Amino acid sequence: MIVRPDYLEIRGLTVTFDGFVAVDHVDLTVFQQDLRFLIGPNGAGKTTIIDALTGLVPATGYARYGATDLLGRKPHQIARLGIGRTFQTASVFTELTVLQNLDIAAGAGRSPLSLLRARRGVPPQVAEALETIGLSRASGQLAGSLSHGQKQWLEIGMLLVQNAKVMLLDEPVAGMSADEREQTGALLKSIATDRTVIIVEHDMDFLRAWADSVTVLHGGKVLSEGSVADVQADPKVQEVYLGSGHTAQVPAQAAEPVAHDAGPSTGEQHVLVTEGIR
Ligand SMILES: Nc1ncnc2c1ncn2[C@@H]1O[C@H](COP(=O)(O)OP(=O)(O)OP(=O)(O)O)[C@@H](O)[C@H]1O
């Protein structure tokens, strides 16, 4: 792998909410081509890290992409620097077509009214994004009529046409069918060839199938980092996921996270969690 200078480097990232330290001196380095998964129990600080990197919450420390500092900037400035994110719930314009959604994301130098008008030809970067996300044939379809998975792909396409070089994806496969998960894995792998991609995910099967590397968070701190095999073998990770039999939080199969206050785990949950990390 050729290491290029434009990679994401985070040092001592800290986010505090009214005295509560949600992210606690996190160090993270992610290179292009390294499909990095960020995992951890509910409340570990995963989404807050993405929020801090995209200017939604104030943070201290240091976060740099290439030569550019990210902290202390407004969300739109960070987006313009090529740092893109998705949310747990896809935010597409449901009343507009797939193509119109991509057009708006691309800006394309057109007025809002002209974006809504039919027009000849599709800008090359939009056509390329349509192809990459597998929605070329659905380009005229209303985004609201897409499947859950297709909406997530459209959102990724909207980042592609904005030339996002860093993509921070929050639970991209939650609620997807098995087929959609498979297609999403292949999509993420392909976009990570020349981008820095971080995926927050609870789905351990998906992680095992697609992660190049994993960072495990717990209580706002980095607990473990390495390959899937490395983190699975780490006793600290096993302790967090398996706990004393009362702290089970990450299901093996379910796409949705289990609530933090789900109460003592049952024997069945415990088996699921054991399968989840092994
Ligand atoms: N705006 C906020 N104000 C106060 N506390 C917050 C805020 N946002 C997050 N937190 C707290 O920070 C901690 C980390 O939350 P975060 O959403 O980052 O966790 P997470 O690892 O993404 O969890 P999940 O897997 O459940 O999404 C939690 O204790 C949460 O309650």
UniProtKB/TrEMBL annotation:
PROSITE patterns linked to this entry: ABC_TRANSPORTER_2 (PS50893)
Gene3D superfamilies: P-loop containing nucleotide triphosphate hydrolases (3.40.50.300)
Keyword ATP-binding: yes
Chain intervals for the UniProt region annotation (Disordered): 251-278
A single GO molecular function term of this UniProt record: ATP binding
KW Nucleotide-binding (keyword) present: yes
Keywords tagged on the record: ATP-binding, Nucleotide-binding, Transport
Residue ranges of the TM segments: none
One Pfam entry name: BCA_ABC_TP_C
Domain ABC transporter: 8-244
GO cellular component, one term: plasma membrane
NCBIfam families membership: urea_trans_UrtD (TIGR03411)
PANTHER family to which the protein is assigned, alphabetical: CONSERVED COMPONENT OF ABC TRANSPORTER FOR NATURAL AMINO ACIDS-RELATED, HIGH-AFFINITY BRANCHED-CHAIN AMINO ACID TRANSPORT ATP-BINDING PROTEIN
Protein name: Putative ABC transporter ATP-binding protein
Organism lineage: Bacteria, Bacillati, Actinomycetota, Actinomycetes, Micrococcales
